[in-house]
Write a structure and sequence with these properties.
Chain lengths: 165, 395
């Protein structure tokens, strides 16, 4: 009979093997990004002192180290610069093919490029110059132990998808 | 009067591949091979240890690894005993840090040993854990932890902007596997034809199986010592660590520093700084070890390291310039493509090959090699590390 047990073999949660961010406000000061995402907004932080827009969002400005930051919206549409599909060696969490694109958010965007997984996208359908848009989806929740209870932290994340022609 | 100078004295590695061994087993095998290369050096004469590994804390569940390694190797460090994690460049980083420690007078004889045990009891974790190798909260959920997707994009962009051809990528694999065929310690000992490369399983077009380095278990170790100690320890020609540089300009892919993905200004900057630091120019390089994690990587690297003009990396390789007898024989022990890539050990393997080349005892010897260079990129090309070695010290 076993005299000791291994938590994750009994279904206990460990962030070590979690590919998604720990988004909850109890663990993350930029939780607003994920709240905005839930409302369909793609956002980041802008420094109120020097005006520098930084992506990903953060708690200090990387230019002047001010912590007076505001949330601004980024474009939700862009154009594909290059797209690739991966069939072999895809991590267990995705169904092959894994499709990713390097996206141009436009010359007026303070963040020019974004790398994104493509969803709702049939294999071999996307090409350079195609228009794509932000797509928000649910990802698995995880438990958080608070003082008297364990809550379930719901999560969302983003990818991009083709704009229907 | 010149200050203290650091030399690389000797090195060795265990057999690399899918190993039936733990990380600490492989570290012992590599240390044994290393000390066999420096007869007369006893573990107790080594005063510093730098251990390079990224995944040992994750796949073997061992934090604060350096004392474990020191104890198992019979070392009793009195100058430094620490672990270094710079993913693919951890080994080279350990060598640069050892150089600094030796030249500052803090250390005399330092062992730099790197190791990764990448294969886990359930194979799914081998690919899944790669997610931890890049900016976790932003790039990992987009799927580029396992890097072929990212490097396939780089290849497509390089082809678009410079006209690089699929067969030129393939030539990198054919040449490097050709070198690796003669290296019994590497992961693979087989020759490839262009047909093998072009007909291989597609991983992420245009990259096929042989355009990608394998995941490999392995360990390698070197001894870095002061010039004075190096003379005591070995009768072989001295090999100096002339200089180096390490550059990081971004982490999240959205902050890529180049004009496009085939443009690597962070490597250009690292090269410029390293050449200035070592007081050489690219034309002085006789032999190179560059980070061929993918075939396309080597093509971009020979350009940004100044071995050829920007955009002509494909032609450089295709015309045989990386072969023996070419302008700069490159990855002469097989590189990452054929030897495999246990991240923290790779820079140390590269250093061992350059050491042998500069001492005239390499298997694929470049005649009269006097200056050698190693290069590593880390993760999704977010950091570049260069070490320059020479038969003569920096004047």
């Amino acid at each position: 009979m076993a005299t000791a047990w291994i938590p994750f073999l009994e279904g206990r949660y460990s962030p070590t093997l979690d590919m998604w961010p720990i988004e909850a406000k109890e663990f993350n000061r930029i939780y607003k990004f994920y709240e905005n995402l839930r409302e369909g907004k793609f956002t980041t932080t802008k420094c109120q002192k020097c005006g520098r827009v930084a992506y990903p969002p953060r708690v200090i400005c990387p230019e002047c180290y001010s912590d007076e930051l505001e949330w601004i919206e980024l474009p939700k549409k862009g154009k594909v610069i290059v797209v690739v599909e991966k069939w072999g060696g895809v991590p267990i969490c995705y169904e092959p093919p894994l499709i990713d694109a390097w996206i141009d958010l436009g010359k007026d965007s303070p963040v020019r490029h974004i790398l994104s997984r493509m969803i709702n996208c049939p294999p071999e359908s996307l090409k350079e110059g195609d228009e794509v848009q932000l797509a928000v989806f649910d990802v698995p929740a995880h438990p958080i132990e608070l003082k008297k209870e364990t809550i379930k932290a719901e999560r969302v994340f983003f990818a991009f998808e083709p704009v229907k022609k | 009067m010149a200050g203290r100078r650091a030399c690389i004295v000797g090195g060795g590695m265990c057999k690399w591949g899918v190993r039936e061994a733990s990380y600490i087993d492989m570290v012992q095998e590599a240390a044994k091979a290393c000390l066999e290369d420096v007869p007369g050096l006893k573990p107790t004469n080594i005063d510093g240890l730098l251990f390079s590994s990224t995944f040992v804390g994750r796949r073997s569940v061992q934090a604060n690894t350096a004392p474990v390694v020191a104890e198992r190797l019979g070392l009793k460090p009195t100058s430094i005993c620490a672990r270094v994690d710079v993913l693919c460049a951890g080994g080279s980083t350990g060598i640069l840090l050892a150089k600094g420690l030796v030249e500052s007078g803090m250390a005399d004889v330092v062992m730099v040993v790197g190791c990764e045990k990448l294969y886990t009891p359930e194979r799914w974790q081998v690919q899944y854990d790669e997610i931890a190798a890049i900016d976790h909260d932003w790039d990992a959920p987009q799927g580029i932890g396992p890097p072929p997707l990212w490097f396939a994009m780089i290849a497509k962009e390089h082809m678009k902007h410079y006209g690089t051809k699929r067969e030129q990528l393939g030539m990198v694999s054919v040449i490097n596997y050709g070198y690796g065929y003669t290296n019994p310690k590497g992961h693979f000992q087989r020759k490839l034809t262009m047909e093998d490369v072009l007909n291989a399983t597609e991983i992420a077009a245009p990259l096929g199986l042989y355009d990608c380095c394998p995941l490999t278990d392995g360990s390698a170790a070197v001894i870095i010592a002061s010039e004075e100690k190096a003379k005591e320890l070995s009768d072989r020609p001295l090999v100096y660590i002339r200089g180096g540089a390490q550059v990081s300009l971004h982490s999240v892919s959205a902050n890529w520093p180049g004009e496009h993905l085939g443009d690597w200004p962070h490597l250009r900057l690292a090269a410029k700084k390293a050449y200035a630091n070592a007081k050489i120019s690219p034309k002085d390089v006789d032999v190179a070890q560059v980070h061929d994690c993918f075939s396309i990587s080597e093509i971009v690297e020979v350009e940004e390291l100044g071995f050829c003009k920007k955009g002509e990396g494909g032609l450089f390789v295709e015309s045989g310039q990386t072969k023996l007898g070419g302008a700069i024989p490159t990855n002469t022990d097989g590189g990452l493509l054929s030897c495999g890539h246990p991240f923290g050990a790779t820079g140390i393997r590269q250093a061992i090959e350059i050491l042998k080349q500069l001492q005239g005892r390499a298997t694929n010897q470049v005649n009269g090699a006097a200056i050698g260079i190693t290069h590593n990129l880390s993760g999704s090309c977010v950091e570049h590390t260069i070490v320059i070695y020479g038969r003569e010290p920096r004047k």
